[in-house]
Write a structure and sequence with these properties.
It is built from 11 helices and 7 strands. The protein is α+β, with helices and mostly antiparallel strands. It has 3 domains: about 160 residues, no CATH class; about 90 residues, Winged helix-like DNA-binding domain superfamily/Winged helix DNA-binding domain (Arc Repressor Mutant, subunit A); about 50 residues. It has a 5-stranded antiparallel beta sheet with strand order 1-5-2-3-4. Strands 6-7 form a two-stranded antiparallel sheet. β2 and β3 form a beta hairpin. The radius of gyration is 45 Å and the shape is elongated.
Length: about 325
């Protein structure tokens, strides 16, 4: 059963619910502009998700290091083991007990939710379900999440998101802790983690990258910390200005009209020059003719002189000889 179409014409929730209700196995692909999302399904349940933005695609291993779950020097050691043994990096991390399976599964789950949150915000794009394909068939991480639960959570977050970004208007904002002894609040675990990372230098985007909670949940924690007065805005990091490449001016569009103009100009020059030559030729011919006529009359006058012993006028010669 082919499942494909455009996001603007078909409700995404209906498509995902169909896959779930029919207990389908395959990979659901969604593409918009330069962003691509792959969501794996096994018998209607979600097993994984992969987000590729342009040429950048963050692997789980890279995220574990970036979020601080695995230290950089430890990961470099694991990479060395991988090069020597050819064992998959994730297998080394799990089998050699550098990280627990529960921790990885927790991260994978909220990363899957993040991907669902992202595509629910897309207004345009095309989708296709490739039935029978299996995402990460050899992975040690075996996750099966309820598609319906993911949809409901994505819908809840989608409704809540406008209120959050109305306060946290940019990822470049930097917050600072508020020292208020009278404020005795015990932040929740995730909020405490975000609060511990706020240092008057890290921006919202930096916090998202390192706290390991995902974009929505990080923003939500910052929003709650702001609402309860535990943090306040410090400043906004300047947005780096990317120099626009200079546009190359092309004159290719002028080639055809210039060619036509050149040909027309040559034809005009040829026309006038030809007329000029023709006039010069006629004038020269007339002069030669007159000279010849003059020469002929002179000869005739000489003949007349020998016969009549006088030089006749040109008119007399014309009357006699013409």
């Amino acid at each position: 059963m082919p499942i494909e179409g455009q996001l603007k014409s078909i409700n995404l929730t209906s498509v995902l619910q169909l896959i779930s209700q029919e207990h389908l196995t395959g990979v659901f692909k969604v593409k918009t502009k330069n962003e691509i999302v792959d969501i794996g399904f096994l018998e209607g349940e979600v097993t994984g998700a992969f987000f590729e933005r342009g040429e950048k695609a963050e692997s789980l291993e890279t995220y574990l290091v970036g979020s601080g779950v695995i230290k950089k020097n430890l990961f470099e050691m694991v990479e060395e083991i991988h090069r020597e043994t050819k064992r998959p990096i994730m297998n080394i991390l799990l089998e050699d007990k550098y990280i627990s399976l529960e921790e990885v599964e927790r991260i994978v789950k909220f990363k899957i939710q993040e991907v669902l949150d992202e595509i629910f915000s897309w207004k345009e794009g095309e989708f296709k379900f490739e039935e029978g394909n299996v995402m990460y068939p050899k992975s040690m991480i075996k996750i099966r999440l309820s598609t319906q639960s993911l949809i409901l959570e994505a819908a809840r977050r989608f409704d809540e998101w406008p209120r959050i970004i109305n306060v946290i208007t940019s990822g470049n904002l930097v917050y600072k802790k508020v020292q208020r002894p009278e404020l005795k609040l015990e932040p929740r675990e995730d909020e405490a983690r975000v609060l511990s990372l706020i240092d008057n230098h890290r921006s919202v985007d930096d916090l998202v990258a390192i706290c390991g909670l995902g974009k929505f949940h990080t923003y939500s924690c910052i929003y709650h910390l702001l609402s309860t007065g535990q943090i306040e805005l410090a400043y906004a990091k300047p947005v780096p200005v990317t120099a626009r490449p200079k546009k190359k001016i092309s004159f290719k569009f002028l080639i055809k009209p210039l060619t036509i103009a050149t040909v027309v100009a040559l034809l005009i020059v040829e026309f006038f020059f030809g007329n000029y030559l023709a006039r010069q030729h006629i004038l020269s011919f007339n002069i030669i003719k007159e000279e010849l006529n003059k020469s002929d009359y002179t000869s005739c006058q000489k003949i007349f002189f020998y016969q009549h012993n006088r030089i006749p006028s040109v008119q007399e010669v014309k009357d006699i000889f013409e």
